[in-house]
Specification:
5 helices; 22-stranded antiparallel barrel
């Protein structure tokens, strides 16, 4: 018993001695503006730049750090949206405790000297991407993400909503760094413009990124909401064209303790009109096309983030989207001027309808090590797409002898696509100058497409097509930063396997290869305000399901669109040089690029051999030979006065193309292949000008010009327009009302001409002249909690919660 008492006493003496030789730091963190406590602020104790201890403040903004050696330390206090506090303390035998009460001041964010204000958008050139922070001027552009994309430098959106970057539509679209199973053209129409925080143009992605997309990646980063308590926002708008189109979304968020719940529901519906003609000169045949799309789309998202402790976060969400669209296409063909033709005219009424459902489920885990910037991320994502299309074709043929006949038949298409993605990412700052990143990913895609047609002329009335891909990859990057120079080297190893099967073996296509995708980045700061960058990467554009599916996409009496299951991937080696200069009232960025492209995938139009009349054409895809391209871009934003700022930009691209087209001989009335070599040049210019009348009211003026393009198959004419708009804020900046008049002079149209496969010209016009009226309202309040969540395919972690996708 005496021995036990002695041991307990000895341990007590040792513990007391250690406590007497250790110090502690405590305090309270508040907001400078209103003295409100800040919870979950990060307090770090550093010794010679290395973190020795740290905690997060509690709900009352207080903290205590114990068992510190008696010496001098640096104290850093950080919190999102506030300026970092850096101070020092000395713990000694005479002063073993220290109290730090700090009031943090809200931060006016700066990007390399460019002030970002909420009213106007700004552009920043980072080491591997151009970042456009979306201000209220861009959100005034329209109801959806698709509406504002044409205002972004180097980005174009055609009349069908399809994106292109630097004149090339082989671009990958990500939402918050994650791919979506929804078609990008449809997806962007469903994202409210007010939900977008910034748009990242990654034209030369590093090995960390998935290598798909020849022209690069467009990553749309949405606003996150993880405030304490209950809060949210509402966004709604009406677009007036030939008829009114409506969109609205409601974001809700509830944060309590360590758990953050978020949800979103949105709706987008309206009727859209598009019409045009294609005129063939020999023989003289005119095809007129009227398209009406009646779209109705719903989506919702629910999820939660759970902060297990200061170092571990678990997140889950599901996103559900359902759209019900009806398309009506009327095609009229006039043969009145065709000598020797028995047919006077053909009129076809076609109708497309059916639901499209996409369900996405995401689970993510993040571990933050004690060393600052040292992280490990796991993520699993499953997406299930079900697409059903019912179509009816009613074709009426009127002959010159006034006789007529009708052919009516139905089509049925059912498609499923299941995508499973698993990935792990590891970041380790080896020291304050060196960073190592590594990761691995598995992507498995399974598709099944069933096609049933009542067309009496169809060679295959029943078809079943499967297209499956298995992709396994791993990457590593290594970077160092010095005083004026920094670099990053990386490579990605990838195994790719594809299996296509039509009607259980009638036609098969398989491909299996292993590839390396290297990347390199070099940055040199000439001065504090002048930066020069060089980058290289290798990328791939793999054939998509739509490009390979040998099943009708759409059909008119003269054109049928099909995929090509034998398409090969196209590979691109890309080099870029960029220069950024920070000005006192703005910034200037410019860059040049060069690309070497093998097996480029492009559209092709050729005669349908199964058509006895020789008039019907097949629109599909093919691989062309080796091509090269180059270009440059310049963007500038400058605040001329307190009430006027401008953001002009231009971009130019040129690509050498070589391929086979078909030329029609009117004498023999046959088409034969012809090899062509052309240089395709494209020029775009934009000017965004903002005028601030007072603190609440502002106006904008936007101009756009796209030059004509002479292509391998078609020659496109120039396009241009001008938009005007205004914005008014009220209710202490919680509500914004936007009004915009798009295409004031109704000049936007797509016109073209070509000699291949026969001499023809055409033009299509859509509802480009519209008036948009939008409203956003933010409600609720509370303090932002610094929940960390994995940001897939982004070099920086983001605050958690909310968001639409």
């Amino acid at each position: 018993m005496k021995l036990k008492f002695f041991l307990f006493a000895l341990l007590g003496v040792i513990a007391t001695a250690q406590a007497q030789n250790a110090g502690s730091v405590s305090g309270k963190i508040t907001e400078k503006s209103n003295n409100a406590p800040i919870s979950y602020a990060t307090v770090s104790i550093k010794d010679n730049g290395k973190v020795v201890s740290g905690v997060n403040t509690d709900d009352n903004g207080t903290f205590t750090i114990k068992n510190l050696a008696l010496k001098s330390y640096t104290v850093e206090i950080q919190y999102i949206g506030f300026r970092k506090y850096i101070g020092s303390i000395i713990l000694s035998d005479n002063k073993k405790t220290a109290t730090i009460n700090v009031s943090l001041e809200e931060e006016a964010t700066q990007l390399k000297g460019v002030n970002i204000v909420s009213d106007r958008s700004t552009i920043e050139q980072k080491i591997d991407r151009k970042v456009i922070t979306v201000g209220k001027d861009l959100t005034t552009a329209g109801a959806s993400a698709s509406d504002i994309m044409n205002n972004i430098p180097s980005v174009n959106v055609d009349q069908d909503g399809k994106l292109s970057l630097r004149g090339n539509d082989n671009v990958r679209v990500l939402i918050d760094g994650r791919p979506s199973n929804i078609d990008p053209a449809q997806l962007l129409k469903q994202i409210p413009s007010t939900s977008i925080k910034k748009i990242e143009l990654i034209t030369n992605p590093s090995a960390k990124y998935n290598p798909e997309g020849m022209s690069g990646i467009i990553n749309i980063v949405l606003h996150k909401n993880s405030n304490t308590g209950f809060n949210g926002s509402y966004s709604g708008g009406i677009t007036f064209g030939e008829t009114a189109k409506y969109n609205q979304s409601l974001n809700l968020n509830y944060k309590t303790g360590k758990v953050n719940f978020f949800g979103n529901v949105g709706q987008n519906f309206g009727t859209y009109y598009n019409d045009g003609f294609i005129k063939r000169f020999d023989p003289n045949v005119v095809q007129k096309i009227d398209v009406v799309n009646d779209n109705d789309s719903y989506l919702y998202k629910i999820g939660m983030d759970y902060l297990i402790d200061d170092h571990n976060t678990l997140s889950f969400y599901t996103n559900q989207n359902k759209s019900n669209g009806k398309g009506f296409v009327d095609t009229g063909i006039d043969y009145d001027n065709v000598t020797g033709s028995d047919v006077a005219s053909i009129f076809q009424k076609s109708k497309y309808s059916g639901p499209d459902q996409v369900g996405t489920y995401n689970l993510a885990y993040k571990h933050i090590f004690k060393k600052e910037g040292h992280t490990l991320d796991f993520e699993g994502n499953y997406s299930d797409n079900k697409d059903t299309q019912y179509s009816t074709f009613d074709t009426q043929t009127i002959n010159n002898d006034n006789t007529q006949n009708n052919v009516v038949y139905d089509d049925y298409i059912k498609g499923t696509r299941k995508l499973t993605t698993l990935n792990v990412d590891y970041v380790n700052p080896l020291n304050d100058k060196t960073t190592l990143e590594a990761g691995a990913e598995a992507r498995i895609t399974k598709t099944d497409n069933y096609y049933l047609t009542g067309n009496p002329l169809a060679a295959l009335p029943v078809s079943n097509y499967t297209y499956d891909t298995d992709i396994y990859s791993a990457y590593v990057t290594f970077g160092q930063k010095f005083k004026k120079f920094s670099y990053q080297l990386g490579t990605r190893f990838e195994s790719y396997k594809v299996a296509a099967n039509l009607n259980q073996g009638l036609e098969k296509f398989n491909d299996d290869y292993i590839t390396l995708y290297p990347s390199a980045y070099f940055t040199y700061n000439l001065t504090e305000k002048n930066t020069l960058q060089f980058s290289y990467s290798r990328r791939v554009d793999r054939p998509s399901l739509e490009q390979t599916k040998p099943i009708r996409e759409f059909s008119t009496p003269l054109v049928t669109s099909l995929g090509n299951p034998e398409l090969r991937p196209q590979f691109t080696n890309s080099v870029e040089i960029n220069y950024t200069r920070t000005l006192e009232k703005g910034s200037f960025t410019t860059g040049v690029f060069y690309r070497s492209i093998n097996d480029q995938i492009s559209r092709i139009l050729y005669p349908d051999d199964t058509d006895p009349t020789g008039n019907k054409q097949i629109l599909t895809y093919t691989n062309y030979d080796h091509n090269t391209s180059y270009g440059f871009e310049v963007s500038f934003n400058y605040k001329i006065t307190k009430w006027w700022d401008i953001s002009p930009s231009i971009d130019f691209s040129s690509i050498n193309q070589q391929g086979v087209v078909f030329a029609y001989d009117p004498v023999t009335q046959t088409s034969s292949p012809l090899e062509r070599k052309v240089t395709v040049a494209a020029f775009n210019g934009r000017m965004n000008s903002n005028f601030k009348a007072n603190k609440r009211l502002s106006f904008l003026l936007f101009g756009f010009y796209r030059g004509g393009v002479d292509g391998l198959q078609n020659n496109s004419k120039e396009m241009y327009k001008m938009d005007i708009g205004s914005r008014y804020t009220l209710l202490d900046n919680k509500m914004n009302i936007s009004l915009r008049f798009n295409d004031v002079f109704n000049t936007m149209k797509y016109s073209f001409d070509s000699m291949y496969p026969y001499a023809h010209e055409g033009q299509f016009k859509w509802e480009s002249q519209t008036v948009y009226l939008g409203l956003t309202y933010n409600f609720g309040g509370g303090k932002i909690k610094n929940l960390q969540r994995k940001q897939r395919e982004d070099n920086t972690s983001k605050a958690s919660g909310g968001g639409m996708f």
